[in-house]
Amino acid sequence: MIKSTLIMKKLILILLIVNGFNFVIAQQLPTVISGQITRIDNFKSNYVTSRNIDIWLPANYSTDKKFAVLYMHDGQMLYDATTTWNKQAWDVDDIATALIVGNKTQKFIVVGVWNDSQKRHSDYFPQKPYENLTDEQKDFVTKQLIEKGRTNQKFQPESDNYLKFLVTELKPFIDKNYSVYTDRKHTFVAGSSMGGLISMYALCEYPQVFGGAACLSTHWPGIFTVENSPIPEAFNNYLKANLPKLKSSKLYFDYGDKTLDAMYPPLQNEIDKSLQQANPKNKYNWQTQFFPGKDHSENSWKERLNIPLEFLLAK
């Protein structure tokens, strides 16, 4: 398929003021095979640090039609491996195009929300489960995250503010400026690892806004050890307490068993037990998928992204 000249790689110059000096840093717009990317540079927020928003519009996008919306975290990793730090990407545009053209999903756009690398852990770590920990347990979490370089001070999640940004600032902007459905039945959220956690949390906190969440390689440890960690149980208890709100929602989990995903099988099994116990009459539209031999990477996630997208965006 011929690449549109509108979506060829180009440089966007961003002027940064650092210590009184001007530095120009080039940021490359992702190249996509079909459709086009529009970027909102440094979207301003009252709740989180400014960040880029990369919006993918399918080739058949038109203001004469309405489209569903998929909000995805870690937006700089979604579209083009030549622009990412590890030279991997989800290739969301390829997968979404195939699903739409194949009539396997409804028509949708993708809103890729960049992370702030310095605040990613605090933005994505579910806040209410953390606040239910004891002071001793919170100190344990802080110690573990300091050792892994995820924080240099007492850890405090800011995910409630991150969700306020999504729901009260970004979504109204998308609803106003793009030809999209605005109701929960056409609004979804997805991410991997810590992005899986915040997707689950978004659905639980705002079931009236999001109709479903896809959580790939969900980072149930929250930190980087499970030994003596209170976090997996805290997340499980939180999910169980919020399940009654999700009867008309779609909830997807998956996991592999290599690299960081090697920690997940027993933790996801506990989550699945909770869902099964609460779901004797199939009240919840939920599924969990296991992918043996798959690791914790964009390459693995793109191989199976079609599965959660078909689940969430079924016609």
* Uncertain parts: 1-26
Give the C-alpha Rg: 19 Å
Order of helices and strands: EEEEEHEHHHHEHEHEHEHH
Strand order of the largest sheet: 3-4-6-5-7-8-9-10
Write out the CATH superfamily name.
Alpha/Beta hydrolase fold, catalytic domain
- Return the CATH topology: Rossmann fold
Q: Helix count?
A: 10
**What's the number of structural domains?**
1
The helicity comes to 25-40%
Architecture, CATH level 2?
3-Layer(aba) Sandwich
Average pLDDT score: 91
Q: What can you tell me about this protein's structure?
A:
This protein has 315 residues and is α/β, with parallel strands linked by helices. The protein has a single domain (35-127, 156-312), classed as Rossmann fold, CATH 3.40.50. The protein is 33% helix and 21% strand. It contains 10 helices and 10 strands. It has helices at 92-101, 120-124, 127-131, 135-147, 159-177, 194-205, 231-242, 264-277, 298-304, 306-312; strands spanning 11-18, 21-28, 36-43, 51-57, 68-72, 108-113, 187-192, 212-216, 250-255, 285-290. The strands form 2 sheets. The protein has an 8-stranded mixed sheet with strand order 3-4-6-5-7-8-9-10, with helices on both faces. Strands 1-2 form a two-stranded antiparallel ribbon. α7 runs parallel beside α8 (264-277). Residues 1-26 have low confidence and may be disordered.
